[in-house]
Write a structure and sequence with these properties.
Layout lengths: L6 E3 L5 E4 L5 E4 L2 E4 L5 E4 L3 E3 L23
Antiparallel strand pairs: 1-4, 2-3, 3-6, 4-5
The chain binds FE2/S2 (inorganic) cluster (FES).
């Protein structure tokens, strides 16, 4: 099953960093609306999984460090 794409609200001028062989990280506060409508506040930023193997999708749980993800 394909993971759903969350709706993310980030303040103007926020930064997003793509880590080599790792997640996409929103640097700074953001609000995320999940596919089921749940709104999650992340005042200190959050990392999103790119490898698809996190047990907490759409968030990164560091599984990429041990599953051989390249990307
Ligand atoms: S990128 Fe970290 S668990 Fe997938």
């Amino acid at each position: 099953m394909e993971p759903s794409t969350p709706e993310i609200t980030i303040p103007e001028k926020s930064k997003v960093k793509v880590f080599e062989n790792g997640p996409v990280r929103v640097l700074g506060p953001c609000e995320i609306t999940l596919a089921d409508g749940t709104v999650v506040e992340k005042p200190n930023g959050i990392s999103f999984c790119r490898c698809g193997k996190s047990s907490n999708l759409p968030f990164c749980d560091a599984s990429h460090k041990t599953n051989g993800f390249i990307g």
